[in-house]
Amino acid sequence: MIDIQSLKVHVFDVIGAMRKVHQELGPGLNEYCYQEGLMLQLKNDNINFIREMSFHPSYMGVTMNAEFRIDFLCKEDIIVECKAVQKLMPDHRAQLFNYMRLLKQPCGIIVNFYPAVYRIERYFYDHDLKSIIDVNGHRVFNYN
């Protein structure tokens, strides 16, 4: 079972960087602008990250040619997906959940910078349960 409290603390400074980006840039810009702002803020805050990390999923142990690209991998285990949309939709969350599962990463954050009040959602992947868990410990998606 995963330790949600520890993981919440683990993502705290990454979320702080997102807050600073939204304060500086404000609402209503495009996704790329926020990604670049977040990259600069992560550097400024000395948070380790890889931007636009690509990966190939596997099927039955065979690496596929299909390629996916995550916006950021922070601290080696936090997947960050940036959005600039009117409202986060289920397919935005599904994208993050699948990246977490495919890369077996315990933490995922989706941020929507577009609205006047930006929105951040944190999720955790429990590899043993094959489930996505929210910050309150509730299963939001099962891969069983």
Written overview of the protein:
This protein is globular. The two termini are 16 Å apart. The chain has helices at 4-10, 12-25, 31-44, 90-103, and strands at residues 49-55, 58-59, 62-63, 68-74, 78-83, 107-112, 119-126, 131-134, 139-142. The chain is α+β, with helices and mostly antiparallel strands. The chain has a 7-stranded mixed beta sheet, with helices on both faces. A two-stranded antiparallel sheet has the order 2-3. The chain has one domain: tt1808, chain A. A hairpin with a 3-residue loop joins strand 4 (68-74) and strand 5.
Task: Give me some keywords for this one.
144 residues, alpha+beta
Terminal CA distance reads 16 Å
Could you report the average pLDDT, rounded to the nearest whole number?
94
- The percent range for helix content is 25-40%
In spatial order, strands of the major sheet run: 1-4-5-6-7-8-9
The radius of gyration is 15 Å
Number of strands: 9
**What CATH architecture label applies?**
Alpha-Beta Complex
Instruction: Tell me the CATH topology.
Output: tt1808, chain A
Please outline the major beta sheet. Answer: 7 strands, mixed
Given as residue ranges, the uncertain stretches (5+ residues, pLDDT < 50) are: none
Tell me the β content.
25-35%
Which outline best applies? globular
